[in-house]
Design brief:
By secondary structure, this protein is an alpha/beta fold. It contains 15 helices and 20 strands.
Length: 530
């Protein structure tokens, strides 16, 4: 049976939920979600220690003041169960479930150019025709699992952190191997170390991480935020990463050693990972200034970790602070002082294969009962590339993006009309707080759709010239930032075979919104409306 609606939304994470809320007020909407529940990242990522790294009073919806006032966060940095509970509350409170179809992944999209409609087919057999697609598929939703040989021989259990068992596990007699020390590994390691007989951490690239100081929510802190939400939300939108920070007023070069230490100690204890990146005016643009911050963090690590050799392995030295997303933790470095925890450097001795009893690196074998893959994601483009997406004249998205993604302002892809993206390639992505920046993008796209409907337009596309302009803007901005000195999922260098161009806009959220607004005000400049 063929269904016809106005808008199909792909994904019921936080941006998809808000898009469903915003657009269902005026249009007939279906939201398809591959998971069995809503929440996106916070549905899938249930690994031990999974927790938001932005304070929850900020990392929350702003679109409804009653919701802001009513909801109570139990901790400063909420754990996964509370974030999933919040997503379900929003779905129920605003009657969004009537539009959402769970356990129903979108498999193919084909544009019918004659009628300016998308044909959508799903895993459950749905066939829907719609005017618009909103792809809220998430920047981090397709797991990356390196293709090490021997997986079929391994007799233990392998878990990727996005597929952690729903039921509790007893690890007390288990030898656990954790592969990966990005944000997920940093969060999981302390909990796994407490629960397991032994924990072996396999590290390729050490992380810059700072203490969250997480604790139960303070009533006065919560009341202060609730009384000042309108002003705080406006202020957040004007910050580089849509998160409350105090911008440094001086260059690191203008400060004495004593002043530097004072500023950095305050940033270290700020409970904001972004704060270290703006402690001085030039941390993100000047490598010498960045090194001042980097060495401060390295000295913190050396002061926390008892064994000097282990401490030195944990010190990042090959990329600048902020070149990858900074981590925030609750006792990560202290974990390596435990007798049951060891650290293996797999940059100098890479993992070669999985064996019957564990894994082998270039320097030796490790017997493991459980291997935990905290190996990251095929970020930004992975979700859409995993679908069969066909635009005008039969062009396939996988073919168009073969050499890396191109978009206009991160919202549109030339040759794929009426396909609109939230947190798409070349938006600020995880360089900005995702709920607030996602709400802003959804509102922008809703404004575009409203404008088209009011003017009787049936198709919006962009041009390759507009894409090229935004590609150059994205790459040029990155070349003026310290990000250019780091291999990360921002530039796809975590995935073998990807080109390595910047897929995240690192010019800050205010500049991104300024350029987006300018396009809208100039009669949707760069968008081709027909």
């Amino acid at each position: 049976m063929t269904e016809t609606v106005d808008v199909v939304i792909i994904g019921a994470g936080f941006s998809g939920l808000y898009a469903t809320y915003r657009l269902s007020k005026q249009y007939k909407v279906i939201c398809f979600e591959k998971g069995a529940g809503v929440g996106g990242t916070w549905y899938w990522n249930r690994y031990p220690g999974a927790r938001v790294d932005i304070q929850s009073v900020e990392y929350s919806y702003s679109f409804d003041d009653d919701l802001q006032q009513d909801w109570k966060w139990p901790e400063y940095f909420s754990a996964q169960p509370d974030l999933e509970r919040y997503a379900n509350h929003v779905a129920d409170r605003f009657n969004l479930r009537e539009h959402i179809r769970l356990s129903n992944a979108v498999e193919s999209l084909r544009f019918d150019a004659e009628n300016d409609l998308w044909e959508v087919r799903t895993a459950a057999g749905d066939y829907v025709r719609c005017r618009y697609i909103i792809a809220a598929t998430g920047a981090l939703s397709i797991p990356n699992e390196p293709p090490w040989p021997g997986r079929e021989d391994y007799q233990g259990v392998i878990y990727h952190t996005t597929d952690w068992p729903r039921e509790p596990m007893d690890l007390s007699d288990k030898r656990v191997g954790l592969i990966g020390t990005g944000s997920t590994g940093v969060q999981a390691a302390p909990i796994l170390a407490e629960q397991a007989k032994s924990l072996t951490v396999f590290q390729r690239t050490p992380a810059y991480s700072m203490p969250s100081g997480n604790r139960a929510m303070d009533e006065e802190h919560e009341r202060d935020w609730k009384e000042n939400y309108p002003e705080r939300r406006k202020e957040i939108l004007n910050t580089w990463g849509t998160s409350m920070v105090t911008y440094g007023e001086k260059s690191a070069h203008e400060c004495s050693e004593e002043e530097r230490t004072q500023v950095l100690e305050k940033a270290w204890n700020s409970k904001s990972a972004f704060q270290m990146q703006v402690a001085f005016t030039d941390v993100m643009t000047d490598m010498d200034a960045n090194e001042v911050v980097a060495e401060f963090i390295r000295n913190k690590i050396r002061g926390i970790v008892d064994d000097p050799e282990t401490a030195e392995r944990l010190c990042p030295k090959t990329y600048p602070v902020g070149g990858k997303r900074m981590c925030i933790d609750n006792g990560y470095y202290q974990t390596f002082n435990r007798d049951n925890v060891s650290l293996v450097d797999v940059r100098s001795a890479p993992i070669v294969e999985l064996t019957k009893t564990g894994l082998r690196t270039a320097e030796g074998e490790y017997d493991l009962d459980i291997i935990v893959m905290a190996t990251g994601f095929d970020a930004v483009t992975g979700s859409l590339m995993n679908m069969d997406v066909e635009g005008i004249d039969g062009i396939k998205l996988a073919e168009k993006w073969k050499e890396g993604p191109t978009t206009y302002l991160g919202y549109m892809i030339a040759g794929f009309p009426n396909l609109l993206m939230v947190h798409g390639p070349m938006t600020p992505g995880a360089q900005a707080q995702m709920i607030t920046s996602g709400e802003w993008q959804v509102d922008y796209l809703a404004e575009l759709i409203d404008s088209m409907e009011a003017d009787g337009k049936t198709r919006v596309d962009t041009t390759e010239e507009a894409e090229q302009w935004w590609y150059e803007e994205t790459q040029n901005v990155a070349m003026h930032m310290v990000h250019r000195h780091a291999d990360s999922w921002y530039n796809a260098k975590n995935i073998e075979g990807k080109k390595g161009d910047f897929m995240i806009y690192v010019g800050g959220f205010p500049r991104f919104t300024e350029l987006s607004r300018k396009a809208a005000e100039n009669d949707w400049e760069g968008f081709d409306l027909r």
